[in-house]
Amino acid sequence: MPQPAVIAPAVIAVAGAAKAFGAVRALDGVDFAIRSGECVGLVGHNGAGKSTLVNVLNGGLTPDRGEIVAAGEARATYDVAVARGVGIRCVFQELSLCPNLTVAENVRVLREGSGGFGWRNRAAATVRESLDRIFPGHGISGHAGLGGLSIAQRQMVEIAIAFLDVGAPPRLVILDEPTSSLDARRGRELIAHVRRFCAGGGAVVFISHILSEVLEISDRVVVMKDGRVAADRPTAGLDARGLVSAMGSVARERAARRAQPARSGTPLLTHGSLAAWPGEIVGLAGLAGHGQSEALAALYLAASSGWRTGRDPRAAFVAGDRQVDGVFPLWSILWNTTTTVLPDMTRSGGFVDRAAEAAFGAEWRERLAIRAPGMDVPIVSLSGGNQQKALFARALGSRAPVVLMDDPMRGVDIGTKQDVYARIRTEADGGRTFLWYSTETDEVCLCDRVYVFREGKVAATLGGDEVTEENIIAASFGGGHA
């Protein structure tokens, strides 16, 4: 007689979880559970409640109502210490390690009882072993200062530490947009490690706006919308269109290639062998950390003669590492969006026209669907994707003829991405120039021309029909292009 299938126990389950922030109901009666050996994809638009649910699961937030069962026990008190004690780890979309410490010192902060003589070398060796397992050939020293690493390297370190035994072995690792700063190779290495971890009995919650990754890695997909679970389905039989539909958006076909604009005269911007003419969308590609961000920063500084905005700015900048180069965390959403246009709103005597400023904020809030109770609330109260929308508003709302974008779509939902793509094309058709670095090959393939970087230099230039994923990957690894 066949034996009944053994159902793995839930690592954590929440029932009827509700959480409000003032008038905003971030969670509205959410039921969620994940079992050992399972990878669950968690998707939804920015502001759907994903980050709030993650913070309930990791003990960072206490729900206003609802029950939490962790490691088979109902928890009257559930906080970060309890979550860590039962083996729950989290890699946040906004990276949370201490940039003023070394990699090894960050391990020490999280790992109780790991002191004693020689602890730095032991911690460095431990995190190096984890990095070697997940990201072979990473080139990161355990004694390196975290603040001196690129955002991709910091993300790799945070992922590696999450899979370490820091007081209790990891049973559930929550990965919130873990590949947002990683190139295609590092993303595939992480996916392979998640599979091994789950095959060994671990559990993973995988949050990403790259739906192909979610479908590839997950056993089950949970869709959130307006603070509720809108769908909970096995991955088998699902496709990207079905997921987008479940999130409440209309799935759109991939846009046709834009006709390349004619080039004449002197380019607007140059940097070594890189050049951009009016009306072009120029992509920067290649493996992460090979000089793309540095090239954008050099171009911006050359165009602006500093980071201040004048009445006639030559360039605007959209940062992907918004916590370092993007948002002003002590300011409101409105003030974060209007910094590039204040000279146009300043009356005689140096006073800002507050009515014009409010109108600008309201217009861009509607254009980019920034989910917020008002533009006067602090920008840090927004989800990461909505913070990024404010940075787009700051750049696109300016009169700068050139917009430089450093992997700007990190944590932005698919609907907003499509809207921004359309606006970029419209603005480029009107003569505006875009230089766009992205770790997502699909985004790079939307560009008119692409410079592929390798070891800090342009290794290949692709244009028109040459801009394909195969050619970009070949050039990234030194094989020329097909």
Describe the 3D structure.
34% of the residues lie in helices and 21% in strands. It is an alpha/beta fold. It has 2 domains: 10-247, P-loop containing nucleotide triphosphate hydrolases (Rossmann fold, 3-Layer(aba) Sandwich); 269-476, P-loop containing nucleotide triphosphate hydrolases (Rossmann fold, 3-Layer(aba) Sandwich). The strands form 4 sheets. Strands 6-7-8-3-9-10 form a 6-stranded mixed β-sheet, sandwiched between helices. It has a 6-stranded mixed β-sheet with strand order 14-15-16-13-17-18, with helices on both faces. α3 crosses α4 (119-134) and α4 crosses α5. The longest helix is centred in the first third of the chain and has 16 residues, at 119-134.
The CATH C-level name of the largest domain is Alpha Beta
- What's the CATH H-level superfamily name of the largest domain? P-loop containing nucleotide triphosphate hydrolases
CATH topology heading of the largest domain: Rossmann fold
Number of beta-strand segments = 18
Number of helices, where a helix is a run of at least 4 consecutive DSSP H or I residues: 17
Q: Measure the end-to-end span.
A: 57 Å
Which strand order spans the largest sheet, edge to edge or round the barrel? 6-7-8-3-9-10
What overall form do the CA principal axes indicate? globular
**Oligomer type:** single chain
Task: Provide the domain count.
Answer: 2
Protein name: Ribose transport system ATP-binding protein
Keywords: ATP-binding, Nucleotide-binding, Repeat, Sugar transport, Transport
GO molecular function: ATP binding; ATP hydrolysis activity
